[in-house]
Each structure stands twice: as C-alpha cells, then as structure tokens.
Amino acid sequence: MALLEVRDLMVSFATPEGEVHAVNSVDFDVEPGEVMAIVGESGSGKSQTAMALLGLLSENGQARGSALFDGKDLLKLSQSELNQYRGSQVAMIFQDPMTALNPYRTVGSQLREVLTCQRHMERRQANREALEMLEQVRITDPERRLQQFPHELSGGMQQRVMIAMALLARPRLLIADEPTTALDVTVQAEISELLRDYQRRYETAIMLITHDLGVVAGLCERVLVMYGGRVMEYGDVRAIYHQAEHPYTAGLLRSVPRLDRLDDEELHGIPGNPPNLLELPTGCPFQERCQVAIERCSSLPSLTRANHGGLRRCHLEGAIE
Fold first, then answer.
1. Hey, what domains does the chain have and what are their CATH numbers?
2. What digits encode the pLDDT tens for the residues 266-295?
3. Smallest Cα–Cα separation from 174: which of 221, 207, 137, 133?
C-alpha cells in the first residue's frame, strides 16, 4: 500500500482577473521509502501541489480531490488535525531558507522547538540532539552555529539548517521544494547526498520538487513531469530518460548539458512561454509550443500506458526523438 495516494488533485486561486487553475486532476503515489520527483518549469504546479498536501495554500487558494496519507485524507483534515501530521509525519524543506527561518531567533532555538513540540524532549536533551543533527548535515563548528541567527550563515548553511529542522522529527515523508536552488554545484551535490543518506538510514520517503533533471537522475527512482498544472508523463526515471514519450519531457531532457554530448552538439531550448493559467487551452496545454503537434492535439489527451511502463499524456505514439 502506498504511503501517499493523491487522486484528482485540483488547486485553484481566486484573483481579481479570474480563477487561476494551478493544478488540474493530478494523480500520483509515493511508496514507503522511495524517492519521487516532480519536475517542470516555473508555474507548472509543482510547489502548489506540495502546499495543498500540507494545507499551506494562500487564503485565496482552494484544493479539491483526495490525498490519502496512511489512509487519512489530508485535504479533509482541520488545521488542528493537520498540525498533528506536519513535522512529525510529513515535513517540508522550503525553497528559500532565508524566508522560511525566523530571523529573530537563533538557529538553536528553532531546532530545539521541533524537538520539544514534536518529540516532547526536555531542553538539555533537545540541545544535544540538535547539535548531533547539525553534525550529520555537515555544518562546521555546530556549537557556535546554534548560537547564531540565520543571517549570519551562508546560503548553503541555511539550507542545511532547514534540512536539519525537517529531519529532527523523523518524518515518514519528506517534501523537498527546490532544495538546491541558488546553491553552487558543489553544495548542490552535498545536499543531494545528504538527502540520499538520510533516506537510506531511516527509510524515509522523499518527494523532491525541482526543475534540475540532473539531481533527479542521481537521487530519484520515479519522476512525475508536470506542465500547465497537468501530468504529462510519469514513471521510472531511467526508463523515461532513455525513451521519453511526451514532447515536453523530451524537450526538457534536450535542454540539459550532458557529458556524453558531442562537442558540436547544441543544447535545444523549448520555444515559447508556458500557458496562461487563467485561460488554459481546451486541448493539450503544451500544443502551442510543441514542434510535433497534430490536429488531434486540440483535444486533451488522456493519461495512457506508455511503452516504458509508466504513463503519458500525448496523442502521438512511441518515444520522442
């Protein structure tokens, strides 16, 4: 049985210009102990999917559908009931640690709060555990860092503190929203290794939200490709990377630098812009940017079984070259 089962997830926002359809009929599962990625361009609905699961949408947002976590529908829980799941069962690493961390409190006080509230530890024991966790996430001079404020740390250290806060409660599902954004390549690799080490040690399921296909290749087992708030392709990472069956997935892969690419082989971007979520096209949301679109694309294709064993939403058959 899957740890998380999301079915027909819809997320919309009421704005003065009209209703924004950020997520449209999204289905996926996260198995216990697996690492699954959600990828796509900015505005594809990745982060709003995660926010909906934890009840963190803005006041003008609304989520519909179901998200069964260990049999309980997260979308139907009250705020007090959700608080029992946040942190202890489902934890999140937010995209920007500088805005997620409290600038008026020391790193130590924020780490201890997780342990005193979620695991009911006394202050001295919580301080020891916080210190050990900072060592595990490879922060230098951890005793001094506990006394510092977030602005006194580098971007990479702030991200490590965010990871430490999320891991201290020993969640069963960790949602990581762009955990390597704005970090240099070396730090990105270290953060990815940290997540993988923790996943292996505690068999924690991880849902990684990213646009970095390189991180996905090195860390994840399955990938969900989103565009215009819809699932475009879903399945095993290696299978999809070798034989993508949606033009959008193929376009993302062609735009990534690779060591096995010939010196004279150019990177290919995806022309055009993402769709307006206020006025989504009636057919495939990618049709206006798709270089292999056909007349049938004016009608929305359903998710069907792909040759690689996963799912794809495309009228064309077979792998996309």
1. 4-89+171-312 (3.40.50.300), 99-170 (no CATH)
2. 777 888 889 989 988 889 999 999 999 999
3. 207
